[in-house]
Specification:
Elements lengths: L1 H5 L7 H17 L14
């Protein structure tokens, strides 16, 4: 998941990287198919 998120955005510092990863995590968790929504995901 991290590589997929970080490959698409130029990261300027650690705070920016954390922001990008948090946004990707929200997007990923909100757009999963209904059959996978009951499965919990680990935070990176």
């Amino acid at each position: 998941m991290r590589r997929e998120a970080l490959d698409h955005a130029p990261i300027v510092n650690e705070a920016h990287a954390r922001h990008v990863l948090a946004a990707y995590e929200r997007h990923y968790n909100e757009h999963r198919p209904p059959s996978a929504q009951s499965v919990t995901t680990r935070r990176p």
